[in-house]
Inverse folding.
C-alpha cells in the first residue's frame, strides 16, 4: 500500500503522539542527568518548582514563553508555505532596531501606550525587511532560504555590533547598549493579571507584550485558515505543483510569507527591550529564534499548539536555571541538551511511535468490532 | 509431484487500520497463466508484495511445490523460484543488458569471470525462450518493450519457475503488448507458471487460463477464463452490474474554440517534447489525443494550460492568443474560459492534505463568490462543495474530510466537478480515469459526453486507447512529440496501434 500510516483519531494525532515524544525526550534527558551523577527525580523537582513554584517564577516562565510564541509563530508561518525560515534569530535582532528607535525618539514625551504601537510597527517592519532579502533571493534568484537566512543571522549579528558600539551607544558609556528608556519606553507589567489568580509577580518581567503575543497567535490562525493569502500559502506549502496549476504566484507568496515571518520574529524584540531591560543590549535575542524552530515543530505549526509549546520551553528556561543553581554538576547547557532532545523526538523522529500506535488502534478497533459481533450473535 | 505451483492459504495483512488482504486463498496451477484482476486498491499489489517478500503476512501460509515456505525478503522469494517483473522497471539505466541481468547475482568477486559465465547463460536463455536482446546494449537506449524483456530475462537468469508480472502492459504500445503475450505463451509452453496482474479485462480474456478476482481486499471468485465473460468479471470486480460501453450520439461541432499552431515545447534538458503540433478544437466535439505515455501529450497539455512555457508556436483560445512562449497566468486562462483536469491529480489537481471543500476552490479561490474581501467565505465554499458532492455523487459526502481519504474515483470526481461546473468553453482533460474504479469510470465518461453535448469543446488525453476510442469524435495520434495522424473513432485498434508505435506515421510523413 502507498500509505502504510493509517489515519489516527485527532486526539491521538495532536495530543498523544506529541506527549509521548516529549516523555521520551525527558526520559533520555533523565539518563543524561544520571550520567553526570545527579538524581533525575531531584532535577525534575527543581525544574517544576523553579518554573511554577511561586508567582515570580511563573512570571519568568511566561516572560520567556512570550518570546518563544513570537519566534515560534514566525517559523510556523513560513512552514505553512513550505519555507524553512532559520533566520528568525537575525530578524528578531534587527527588529530590535525598530523598537529602540521608537523608544529613543518618544520615551521622554509620550506615554507607553503611544510608543508601544509605534514600536510594534517598527519592530515588525525591521524584521520584515531583514526577511525580505532572503525571500526575494529565493523567489527571483533561486538561492535557498535555509542558506541565506543563516547567513543573514551572521550579518545581523555583525551589523548590531557596529550599531551598538558606534551609533546607538551614548557617548561616554562603556557597555554596548542604548541609553535606558524613560517611562514612555517601558511596558507595564501584568501584575493585575497575576493577582486575579492570587499570585504575586515579584521581580519578574512579565509584561503586556504577552497579550500581544496571544493576539498575534490568533492573527496567525486567521491568516492561515481564514484568508485567501493563507489558502495560497498552504497550497504552496503542501504542493508547489498544485500551486502552479492554480495560478498562485510562487515568487509573490515566497516574498510575502518571508516578510510576515520576519515581522513576527521582529516583534519578539518588544518583550526583552521594552518589557525587561528598557534598553537594547548586545545579543538580546539569545537564541530565541532557534528555540522558535523547536516550538513550531512541537506545536505542529498551529497557534493552539505553539502557545503550550512556548510555555513548555519557558519552563525549561526558567526551571533549567533553577536546576543549574541547585545542582552544580549540571550547567545551563543541560537545557540545550533537553531542547535538542525535544527537537529530535518531536521533529526528526516524529513518526517513530506512529506505526506502533496505529497497530494498537487497529487491534483495539478490530477487537471491539469482533466483540460487537459476538454480542449480536 | 502435484500440479500445483503455488498455494496461498488464509493470507491476511493489515496496515494500521487498513485491512489490505482479508483471508486470501489462491491456488495457481503449474504451467498456466493465472490472471489476478481487481480495481485499484483491491489488494492485488499487496498480495504480490507478500509473495515476493516485500511485506510479511500477518497470518496465513505460502505453499510452493507442496512445501510451506517463509518468504522474509525478495532473496528468499528468488530462492523459492519466484521472479517478479515490476510495473516500474528496476533497471540501472546506464548499465548494459548483461550487467543488469547479473546485477546482484554475480557469482564471484572477480567480475570478468562472472561476466563471461553470465554471457553464456544469457545466450542460452535467449535461445530457449526466443527472447532476443543485444547483451551489450545500454538500457537507456532500449525501447520500453525491450527493457521489459530484460526484466523477464533477469527473473529467468535467477532460475525463476513462477513469474509475477505487475500491470506489465501499462507502458507498452498495442503491438508491444501483443509481443509480450506471445513471449508469455512460450514461457508457459516451457513449463513456467505465470501470475499476471492487471485491471484490463481484455488482457485477461486474451491470455490467461484461469482468473481470480479481488475486491476490497478479498478474493471474491476464481474462474476458468474460457467459462467466464468480460461482463461477469466486471461485475465481480465492482460488485454490481456496469455499463462497459458509453452511449453517445453524433457530435455537433460548432466554431473553433481552441486553435494550436506549430506548438513546440522542450523539457528542462532541452529535449523537444512537443514538435510543431497543430490542430483545432471546436465547440461540441471531443478530440482525443492517443499515444503511448511519454510521447509529448503531457507537455502539450501543460503548455496549453499555462503551466509550462513553450519555445514556439501559437495558441488561440476563443480566437484570442495565449502568450504560450512568454508568461502565462493559469488564473487568467481560467477567467477566459479554459478548464483543466490535469493528468496527475495527486500532485497537481488536488492538495491531498486539504479538506474536500478546500480543493473545490483550487484555482478559483480568487473569485468573488468564495471571498469576503481578503477572507475566505467559508459558508459559500461549504455550500458549493455540498452542491457538487450531491451532483457528482462524491462519497463519502463529507466536505470536511481530508482529500487523501477519498478513493481515486472520488478524488477525480472532485477535480471534474470543480472544472466542469465552472462552465468553461474549453475543457482539457488528462487521463480522466487513471486509477479510477470501474464504477466511477462509467459516471465520468457520461459526464464528459454530457459536457460535449452542452457545447463544450473537450480535449482528451489518455493512454487508454479504449477510452480514447469510446469518447472521441476525432482521434489525433502523437508519437515522439509529433502528430503522426488523425483518424475517426471507428479506426481499428491495429491501425491506431501502428500509428502509436510510430510505424505508419513515418510513412505518412514521408509521403
Amino acid at each position: 500500500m502507498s500509505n502504510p500510516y493509517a489515519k489516527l483519531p485527532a486526539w491521538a494525532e495532536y495530543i498523544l503522539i506529541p506527549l509521548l515524544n516529549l516523555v521520551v525526550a525527558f526520559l533520555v534527558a533523565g539518563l543524561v542527568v544520571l550520567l553526570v551523577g545527579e538524581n533525575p527525580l531531584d532535577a525534575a523537582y527543581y525544574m517544576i518548582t523553579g518554573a511554577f513554584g511561586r508567582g515570580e517564577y511563573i512570571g519568568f516562565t511566561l516572560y520567556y514563553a512570550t518570546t518563544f510564541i513570537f519566534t515560534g509563530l514566525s517559523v510556523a508561518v513560513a512552514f505553512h508555505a513550505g519555507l524553512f525560515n532559520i533566520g528568525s534569530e537575525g530578524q528578531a535582532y534587527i527588529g530590535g532596531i525598530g523598537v529602540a528607535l521608537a523608544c529613543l525618539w518618544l520615551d521622554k514625551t509620550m506615554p507607553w501606550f503611544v510608543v508601544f504601537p509605534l514600536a510594534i510597527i517598527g519592530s515588525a517592519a525591521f524584521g520584515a525587511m531583514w526577511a525580505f532579502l532572503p525571500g526575494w533571493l529565493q523567489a527571483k534568484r533561486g538561492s535557498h532560504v535555509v542558506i541565506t537566512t543563516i547567513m543573514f543571522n551572521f550579518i545581523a549579528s555583525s551589523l548590531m555590533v557596529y550599531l551598538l558600539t558606534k551609533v546607538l551607544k551614548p557617548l561616554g558609556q562603556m557597555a554596548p547598549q542604548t541609553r535606558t528608556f524613560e517611562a514612555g519606553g517601558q511596558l507595564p507589567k501584568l501584575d493585575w493579571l497575576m493577582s486575579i489568580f492570587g499570585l504575586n509577580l515579584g521581580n519578574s518581567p512579565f509584561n503586556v507584550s504577552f497579550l500581544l503575543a496571544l493576539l498575534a497567535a490568533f492573527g496567525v490562525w486567521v491568516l492561515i485558515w481564514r484568508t485567501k493569502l493563507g489558502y495560497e500559502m498552504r497550497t504552496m506549502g503542501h504542493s508547489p505543483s498544485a500551486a502552479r496549476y492554480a495560478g498562485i504566484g510562487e515568487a509573490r507568496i515566497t516574498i510575502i510569507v518571508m516578510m510576515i515571518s520576519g515581522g513576527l520574529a521582529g516583534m519578539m524584540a518588544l518583550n526583552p527591550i521594552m518589557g525587561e531591560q528598557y534598553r537594547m543590549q548586545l545579543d538580546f535575542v539569545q537564541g530565541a529564534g532557534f528555540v522558535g524552530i523547536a516550538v513550531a515543530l512541537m506545536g505542529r505549526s498551529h497557534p493552539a499548539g505553539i502557545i503550550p509549546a512556548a510555555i513548555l520551553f519557558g519552563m525549561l528556561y526558567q526551571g533549567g536555571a533553577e536546576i543549574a543553581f541547585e545542582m552544580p554538576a549540571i550547567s545551563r547547557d543541560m537545557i540545550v541538551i533537553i531542547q535538542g532532545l525535544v527537537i529530535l523526538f518531536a521533529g526528526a523522529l516524529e513518526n517513530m511511535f506512529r506505526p506502533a500506535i496505529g497497530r494498537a488502534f487497529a487491534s483495539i478497533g478490530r477487537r471491539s468490532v469482533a466483540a460487537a459481533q459476538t454480542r449480536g450473535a | 509431484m502435484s500440479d500445483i505451483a503455488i498455494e496461498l492459504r488464509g493470507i491476511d495483512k493489515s496496515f494500521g487500520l487498513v485491512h489490505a488482504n482479508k483471508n486470501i486463498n489462491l491456488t495457481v496451477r503449474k504451467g498456466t497463466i493465472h490472471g489476478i484482476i481487481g480495481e485499484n486498491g483491491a489488494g492485488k499489489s499487496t498480495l504480490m508484495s507478500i509473495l515476493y517478500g516485500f511485506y510479511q503476512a500477518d497470518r496465513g501460509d505460502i505453499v510452493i511445490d507442496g512445501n510451506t515456505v517463509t518468504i522474509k525478503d525478495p532473496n528468499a522469494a528468488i530462492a523459492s523460484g519466484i521472479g517478479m517483473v515490476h510495473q516500474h522497471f528496476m533497471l540501472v539505466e546506464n548499465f548494459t543488458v548483461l550487467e543488469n541481468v547479473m546485477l546482484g547475482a554475480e557469482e564471484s568477486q572477480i567480475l570478468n569471470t562472472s561476466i563471461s559465465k553470465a554471457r553464456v547463460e544469457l545466450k542460452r536463455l535467449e535461445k530457449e525462450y526466443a527472447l532476443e536482446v543485444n547483451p551489450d546494449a545500454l538500457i537507456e537506449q532500449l525501447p520500453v518493450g525491450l527493457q521489459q524483456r530484460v526484466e523477464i530475462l533477469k527473473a529467468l537468469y535467477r532460475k525463476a519457475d513462477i513469474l509475477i508480472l505487475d500491470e506489465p502492459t501499462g507502458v507498452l504500445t498495442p503491438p508491444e503488448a501483443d509481443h509480450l503475450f506471445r513471449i508469455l505463451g512460450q514461457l508457459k509452453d516451457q513449463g513456467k507458471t505465470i501470475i499476471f496482474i492487471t485491471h484490463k479485462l481484455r488482457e485477461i480474456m486474451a491470455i490467461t487460463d484461469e482468473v481470480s478476482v479481488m475486491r476490497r481486499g478479498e478474493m471474491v471468485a476464481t474462474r476458468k477464463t474460457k467459462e467466464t465473460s468480460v461482463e461477469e468479471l466486471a461485475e465481480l470486480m465492482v460488485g454490481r452490474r456496469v455499463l462497459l460501453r458509453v452511449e453517445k450520439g453524433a457530435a455537433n461541432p460548432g466554431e473553433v474554440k481552441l486553435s494550436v499552431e506549430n506548438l513546440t515545447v522542450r523539457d528542462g534538458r532541452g529535449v523537444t517534447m512537443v514538435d510543431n503540433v497543430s490542430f483545432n478544437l471546436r465547440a461540441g466535439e471531443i478530440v482525443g489525443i492517443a499515444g503511448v505515455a511519454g510521447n509529448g501529450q503531457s507537455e502539450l497539455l501543460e503548455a496549453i494550460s499555462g503551466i509550462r512555457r513553450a519555445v514556439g508556436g501559437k495558441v488561440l483560445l476563443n480566437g484570442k492568443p495565449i502568450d504560450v512562449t512568454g508568461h502565462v497566468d493559469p488564473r487568467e486562462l481560467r477567467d477566459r474560459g479554459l478548464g483543466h483536469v490535469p493528468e496527475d491529480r495527486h500532485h497537481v489537481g488536488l492538495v491531498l492534505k486539504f479538506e474536500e471543500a478546500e480543493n473545490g476552490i483550487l484555482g478559483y479561490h480568487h473569485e468573488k463568490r468564495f471571498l469576503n474581501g481578503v477572507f475566505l467565505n467559508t459558508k459559500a465554499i461549504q455550500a458549493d462543495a455540498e452542491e457538487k458532492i450531491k451532483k457528482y455523487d462524491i462519497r463519502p459526502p463529507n466536505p470536511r474530510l481530508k482529500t487523501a481519504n477519498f478513493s481515486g474515483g472520488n478524488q477525480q470526481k472532485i477535480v471534474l466537478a470543480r472544472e466542469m461546473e465552472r462552465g468553461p468553453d474549453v475543457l482539457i482533460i488528462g487521463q480522466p480515469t487513471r486509477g479510477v474504479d470501474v464504477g466511477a469510470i462509467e459516471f465520468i465518461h457520461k459526464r464528459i459526453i454530457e459536457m460535449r453535448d452542452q457545447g463544450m469543446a473537450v480535449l482528451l488525453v489518455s493512454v487508454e486507447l479504449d477510452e480514447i476510442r469510446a469518447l472521441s469524435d476525432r482521434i489525433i495520434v502523437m508519437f515522439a512529440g509529433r502528430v503522426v495522424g488523425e483518424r475517426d473513432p471507428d479506426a481499428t485498434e491495429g491501425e491506431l496501434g501502428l500509428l502509436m508505435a510510430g510505424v505508419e506515421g513515418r510513412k505518412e510523413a514521408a509521403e
About this structure: Chain A has a mean pLDDT of 89. Chain A is about 75% helix and 0% strand.
